[in-house]
């Protein structure tokens, strides 16, 4: 057989594996974003208080505050990035 075929197949396989890994990372990121949006919605769209959110998520109140703070920082980063475009 032609050695070039094996070389090409090896590259194709490596690229395919890399793509699959990146797709998996994007799916994880999507799930994280969705969960963050749900938390923000509970507070700002559904008018839940911090205790209700903590109970619904199975966290203590301080963890909910920490998650909320991280979410706000990420939203600001995205907002700033889109304003620069």
Give the helix/strand layout.
Blueprint: H1 3-44, H2 50-57, H3 61-84
Summarize the structure.
The protein is mainly α and 85 residues long. The protein has three helices and no strands.
End-to-end Cα distance = 51 Å
> Helicity range of the residues?
over 70%
CATH fold node name: Arc Repressor Mutant, subunit A
Beta percentage is under 5%
State the oligomer.
single chain
Shape: elongated
The number of helical segments is: 3
Explain what the structure shows:
The protein has 85 residues and is an all-alpha fold. The protein has a single domain (3-84), classed as Arc Repressor Mutant, subunit A, CATH 1.10.10. It has helices at 3-44, 50-57, 61-84. The longest helix is centred in the first third of the chain and has 42 residues, at 3-44. The relative contact order is 0.07.
Describe this protein with a few key phrases.
Arc Repressor Mutant, subunit A, mainly alpha, 85 residues
